[in-house]
Amino acid sequence: MDPRLLSAQSVDSVDALYSFIQADPCILQRFDVLPFIHTPLHEASFTGNIDLAMELMILQPSFAKKLNEDGLSPLHLAVENHKVELAQELIKFDPNLVRIRGRGGTTPLHLVAEKGDADLLTKFLFVCPESIRDANVNGETALHIMVKNDRHEELEVLRGWMQRMLISDALSTEKHILNTRDRDGNTALHLAAYKNDSKALKELLECMSLNRNIQNKSGMTALDLLRAKGSHMNIKETEKIIKDSGGKTRDSVTTVSTMSEFLKTPVSFREHCSTGLARYKSNMADGTRNALLVITALIITAIYQTAVQPEDDQDFIKDNDVVTKIVLLWGFNTIAYFLAMALTFLLIPFGGTYTWWFICITLPLDCSYVVSTYMKYKLGRHVIPITLIYMYVIVILGFFLGLLVFYVRWRRTTRKNGPEPKSELISEGFKTVV
């Protein structure tokens, strides 16, 4: 039997389906031969026949990802025809069905954003949060589509979901969604400003990750677009909303160079340090990093404990014990302590948040260690030996010396005058004598 005949016939029950299977056991497999075909699952999704759709999902799961001649999957048809319950059942089998790209790169999530259904949108976002990053052939995400179609309720749901999501890359996902530009370089904020949609603007501007002054391909910010396209409308209220949130015109925004122009500029010392640090961290295996973190934590704990532990005979330190106890013992202890702190900094995950937390936690701890060591060894009622101060000065100078060496190495790699040509050309492991 021709599978196209089966899809065109009225298979309105599970019993009818199995009657066709009894006549031709391979009838369902023949659908997979054709790349685009209206399968019985498409028909069940179109009509909202949940029982038949679920039976087909069990018998032939590949139907769920197949597109018909119109470039639509079964989930597309369920959403387009408002078969909400069936759509929810389909994504229970496979949440990734939300990301299937149909005609024009449209996903079922895009259709929900266009047709409007806050509850179904919520289901899609929770079962497949990655789908919010998908864009159609015009570069439009679900956020763009909501603004274009005045879906304010769905926009409110999406805004609330973005601000509350707890996935691993939640912050980067939120920034990506809010600042993604379509083919013309317009973000959702540009589209809302173009339409003078104050309600959509308020929802978008509540998000801290939104770039208020991003420019489209014409070099226009949202405020520029509002003024240019809204001359025949009352834009005073909308303009005030954008300005109060930090929106500016392109003339007020610092000119941003393109990525190609940025890559042409010389590497600064700060970039050299951050890049080297990031490469060092990325080249280290997770097991090695975890083991070293445990070791450094034990070293820091042991040294700090000896610093704060009271010294019973500190009032009877003799002059000849100063060098032995303070300069040598605490000199080496201090060097080991700060080296362990430095290694811990290198081992923590790369990122501004981790760096600042590490600084905020360790800075008071370092001060406490220095003060504890400084106050621990005093000669009776005399002031702290000047040798202890010298010890810390040497440690600080050692740190700056290492930084200077790193800086000199950077300068040597970035100097304009290159090294003299060598007498040998080495390429792909082969040597050619010149």
From TrEMBL:
Pfam families: Ank (PF00023)
Source species, domain of life: Eukaryota
PROSITE patterns: ANK_REP_REGION, ANK_REPEAT
InterPro entries, per database record: Ankyrin_rpt (IPR002110), Ankyrin_rpt-contain_sf (IPR036770)
Organism per entry: Raphanus sativus (Radish)
Keyword Transmembrane helix: yes
ANK repeat feature ranges: 70-97, 184-206
Alphabetized UniProt keyword annotations: ANK repeat, Membrane, Transmembrane, Transmembrane helix
Name of the protein in question: Ankyrin repeat-containing protein BDA1 isoform X1
Residue ranges of the TM segments: 290-307, 327-348, 355-377, 389-408
